[in-house]
Amino acid sequence: MELAANMKGDLVGNQQISNSDMAFVQQVAAGDTNLDAGTIRKLVDIREKQLKGNVENYNSRVDAIYPDSPENKANRSFLGGIAVPENPYADKETTGSVETKTGRVPSAAVVDGWEYFIGADGKKYKRRAGSR
After folding, report:
1. Which of 29, 33, 74, 82 would bridge 5 by S-S if both were Cys, CB 3.0 to 4.6 A apart?
2. H-type alpha helices, 31-105
3. Domain limits, the chain
4. How confident is the model at residue 90 (pLDDT cuts 50, 70, 90)?
5. CB 15 within 8 A of CB 39
6. Any residues with CB less than 8 A from the CB of 78 and at least 6 apart, and which?
7. How many angstroms separate the CA atoms of 110 and 94, rounded?
8. Is the pLDDT of residue 101 over 50?
9. Quick one: pLDDT band at residue 67, thresholds 50, 70, 90?
10. Helices (H) and strands (E) in the chain, counts
């Protein structure tokens, strides 16, 4: 799989990635593992760990070069520390949506009080949950 093949080089030397994660990515890249929902989910989790590691590494470099002091305020505001975004879907319960033959979605996905759905015209929409 192309994603796994591209990930291999990025993962080398990243402290957040375990040897077992690296071995898993290599198996997927070589085509030794079936691509199912669990495999893709694990690849995305490994990629997320790698990207968070990149952000933490950048922040530690900025802290080492420009410690948080009044003299470095201008440099730190430009280079800044990057906040690692939290997963907005973690620990959220969503309802599934399945398209029927008519193209209508019987139940919209609900996240943080918003319904996400596909209209009869095929466009994607969002509205406050319960505001039909």
Report:
1. 29
2. 37-65, 73-79
3. 1-85, 87-132
4. low
5. no
6. none
7. 5
8. no
9. confident
10. 4, 3
